[in-house]
Structures are given as C-alpha cells and as structure tokens.
Amino acid sequence: MFEQEVSVSPYNFMKEVVEKSSMPEKITVYDSTLRDGEQMPGVSFNKEEKLTIARALDEIGLTQIEAGFPAVSEEEKGAVSAVKKEGLSAEILALSRLRKEDIAVCLDCDIDMILLFIASSPLHLKYKLRMTEEEVLENTGTLVQYAKDHGLKTSFSTEDSTRTEYSFLEKINRIAEEHGADRIGLTDTVGCISPEGMKNLATKVSQSIKTPFSIHLHNDFGLALANALVGVQCGASAVATTVNGIGERGGNLALEEFVVAMKVLYDKDLGINTECFKDMSDLVERLSGIKLSKNKPLVGKHAFSHESGIHVAATLECPMTYEAIPPALVGNKRRLVLGKHSGKTVVKDRLKEKGIEASEEEVCDILREIKAIGEQKGRVSNREFWEVVKKHVQE
Ligand code: MN
Fold it and tell me: Which tens digit of pLDDT belongs to each residue from 177-196?
C-alpha cells in the first residue's frame, strides 16, 4: 500500500511568503464550543455534556477551554464550576459582561481566566447598550482593575471590534492595558471583515499595544479561517474556535480547520492531537444535535470520498493525487463511493479485496449496471453492488 504523506502547495513555503509573516512563536487556541458554540440556536449542553466535551478537549491537547457564561443561569454557573473542579490540565475560562455582578459569579466559579467584554461599535452603543463612548471607557478602566484586584487573570475584549472606529478602539485597548489586562481581544462579532481589512486592523492593534492579543471570529461570509490565518500572521497569539465551527448564524472558526491549516499549510504544530478530530467532531455533533454537512472540510463524511472513475483510479495508485493530507491525520476515512461516475478500478479493487476473480468483460458488465443504478438513484449501496456482482460473475 502506498504510504501517504502530506502534499500541499509549495507556494505556501516560498521565501517571500514566509518572510512576510510576523506570526508569534506561541499560539494558544482557546476553544469556545461550550460557550459561543452553545449560543447556536437550539443547542444547550447540560453539566454532564459540558464535562464530557471539556474532558475530550483537554485530552486532545487544548490548553484553554472557555466553559461558559456563568451569569446566564444558576445551572450554567454550576456547569462552569463543575468543569473547573474536574481538575483538567487546561485552564478554564469564562465569559463575563463588564459588570461587577458578572465578575462576582465568575469568582464563585474559581475559573483561571475571565473573558470580560463590552461592545464598542456605534451600532451596539446606540441600540444595545445605550451608552456613550465616555461611559464605556470609564467602565473598562474600573472593571478591568476590579477583576485584576480580585486576582483574576483577565482578558478584555471589545465586542464588534471590526465595526468600531479605530481611534476609539485604540483608546479602549490602551485603558485595558493600563489597568493590567493580560490579554486584549479583537472580535469580528458578525463575521463581516475581509482578510485585507483584518490585516490592516490586526497590524494596527499589534503595533499599538504590548499586551498579547486574541481574535474571535465568525464565519458569516465563510471567512473565519482566512481571517484567523491573517490574524496570527499579524501577531495575534490566541485564537477562539469551536468544534465543527458551531455557533450563532454562520458559526465560528472551526477548531479542526484552524489547527490543521496551521499544521500543514504553515508548518506550525499547535500541540493538539489532530488524529482525534473526527471523534471530537462526532461527539459534538451528537451532543449538540447539529448535523454535519457531508462536505464539511476534514471531518465531513465525504471529506475524503471519491466517486469519479478517474479520481478513484489515481487515488488507488497514489492517494496524494486527490488528497492533500491522509484522512488518518484527522481520524477520518477514505471512501470509494460507487455511482454514475465510477470506473473499472473501483470494481476491480472491491472484487480483489474479496478474492473474487472476474474477466474484463464481467467487470465491464458490472460497471455498466452500477452506473445505471447510480444515474437513477444518485448512489449505489454495498448490497446493490454485490447483487450486481452475483448476476455477472460465475463462481
Ligand atoms: Mn461570538
């Protein structure tokens, strides 16, 4: 059997490409499946489910897990506390509005890091918070200080940063920094920034503060991954993800996509075991009730499936022809699917596996019938395949 290696575009590693990056040495993934993932309509994890997912994330090497938003309910507070009490290796993070009451609930949960946030865009200030810029600035200073004074490792994020005028954003970030924030977050709350816009903004942020900065991105235009990759190249050292990219509207940056892209497209190992991604994805699919689409990159059922005769024939010769990475790298499987686009190779391969000998003519007859079924029904099941074989091959 052909030993498959990774075979991605060599353009990724051209000197002029690599030289332009200011990617930090250490990048932390803080997974938010249990918080922003749970904000997806229809998703609710109870305490046991949160514990199960947190344990799995910890086991595959996540070093920071955002366990929830304790101020939401007593039950949520209990779940976050329980995740913290589990004594995992990962640090446990929790979300908090920029309010004393929320900070107090987080303190009760004994978490490792608080994720304070307040909206900063004119739209959110006017229609949601009904606050002035001055009030936001004042609260930022006071409450970051309050969290720090209570011994909390503190991350401070502006919500809707990407629709906030930069001069204001810079002022808030500076105040958070002056009051001791350990991390400053940039968020694309409605997923509306382009990679070029992200490059501009992340570069500005990185140049104006010394504090490490994080990025939290949504996928409304399918750009969460592109924006994350640009963000880390411009200096972001922490990135929020969710398993399967679950989350509000178009979802969040998918954990598996970001980690694998970093590993194979940027040669940056984040210390997370990618071979468990399919299992992780299955677990979250089951507990969230959000069905994965078959063509979901990396972890979808068809991420490594081939039907076209030309593709199947080439893949069997050398998988790298139509797969840039081996499915095992993400714990997925290769599937050779029978259908109207099938060719002789897949038929021969299946017969050979069972030690069945068939003449060239018999193979052609089988194929003709398989293609007809595929054309009619869109797919050909295993049972149908073997029925066709029985009809044409004398034993
Ligand atoms: Mn979000």
Answer: 999 999 999 999 999 999 99
Tell me if 178 sits within 8 A of 151, measured CB to CB.
Answer: no
Residue 36 CA to ligand 1 center (angstroms) comes to 6
Instruction: Check pLDDT > 80 for residue 394.
Output: no
Query: pTM higher than 0.90, yes or no?
Result: yes
The Cα–Cα gap between 305 and 160 comes to 38
Q: Clarify whether residues 140 and 224 are in a common domain.
A: yes
For residue 228, how far is its CA from the centre of ligand 1 (angstroms)?
14
pLDDT of residue 1 exceeding 50, the answer is no
In angstroms, the CA 395 to CA 389 distance is 10
Q: For residues 78 and 47, is the Cβ–Cβ distance under 8 A?
A: yes
Q: What is the CATH number of the domain that holds 121?
A: 3.20.20.70
Distance from residue 59's CA to the centre of ligand 1 (Å): 24
Domain boundaries, position 214 = 16-272
